[in-house]
Amino acid sequence: MDSVRNALDVGYRAIDTAQIYGNEADVGQAIAESGVKRSDLFVTTKIWTDNLARTKLVPSLRESLEKLRTDHVDLTLIHWPAPGNGVALPEYMEALAEAKALGLTRQIGVSNFNIELTRQAIDVVGNGEIATNQIELSPYLQGRKLTAFLQEQGITVTSYMTLAYGKVLKDAVLAQIAAKHRATVAQVALAWALQLGYAVIPSSTRRENLASNLLARDLALDADDMALIGTLERNGREVDPEGLAPVWD
Questions:
Q1: Could you give the CA distance from residue 186 to residue 202 in angstroms, rounded to a whole number?
Q2: Which stretches does DSSP call E strand in 88-235?
Q3: I need a labelling partner for 185 at 20 to 30 A (CA). Which of 14, 59, 86, 209 fits?
């Protein structure tokens, strides 16, 4: 809860949570105590795989809203496609569309979907309905094929794990670029994703890092910097849970 309170305090206005994180009630309390108007916030939550069935999705989202102390979220995502879960994609995408129709969420989207599953999701809910695909991306995992497809479809790319669990912070190439701009390596990695047009959701618990990461918005990398970062691709995926993840592109 302190990290949410600190984030709001230093200027963040987008909050990303999920049913499986077990912190929706804490997030709701932090928002309530922050004094920040609900209309100034963009709140995202994600439906866990246990709640994908048509009979469970909307009730589970109502529970999330109670915990978050709000009558709607701004964005609701399917957290993982969970191909072996026994709930077919059309069933949960239709239920997600129903949640939007009921006014429980302003926008809907997906997370950790590959190209084929994103296509299937579009087929169910229609063009222009999927706001984002939230995927793991970092200088070590650049996902060029998937991100190109999403951008062609007009679907915002949301990048999580942009610092690869901190692994990129030790990178010599990024350190060289950071020194050139008198920035931190974290700021360089985040600015790289922002300049590619991605929404970025860095996670940090320390107030000084939260404040520092926010400054990545003001860092302009040049074409040479971006080309250098492009050479760091190594398919360095950090998150790949068996039974939940798709076959990656």
A1: 9
A2: 105-111, 130-136, 156-160, 199-200
A3: 14
Handedness of CA 113, 147, 206, 236 (dihedral sign): positive
User: Which regions of the chain does DSSP assign to beta strands (E)?
Assistant: 14-16, 42-47, 73-78, 105-111, 130-136, 156-160, 199-200
The secondary structure of 102-117, three-state, reads: CCCEEEEEEECCCHHH
- The residues annotated with a catalytic role in the active site are 21
- The DSSP annotation for 30-53 comes to HHHHH---GGG-EEEEEE-GGG-S
Residue given tokens 């984002």 in the structure block? 132
Residue 248 neighbours by CB under 8 Å, 6+ apart: 114, 237, 240
Q: Say how many CA atoms lie within 13 Å of 224 toward its Cβ.
A: 6
- Angle at the Cα of 65 from the Cα atoms of 75 and 162, rounded to 5 degrees: 40
14-16 and 42-47 strand pairing: parallel
Residue burial 161-188, b: 16+ Cβ < 10 Å; e: rest: bbbbeeebbebebbeebbeeeebbbbbb
Contacts of 168 (CB under 8 A, 6+ apart): 138, 139, 140, 174, 185, 189, 232
In this structure, the dihedral spanned by the alpha carbons of residues 94, 100, 106 and 107, taken in order and rounded to 10 degrees, is 10
**Cβ(76)–Cβ(210) below 8 Å:** no
pTM: 0.97
Give the span between the Cα atoms of 44 and 72, in whole angstroms. 10
Give the strand pairing for 156-160 and 130-136.
parallel
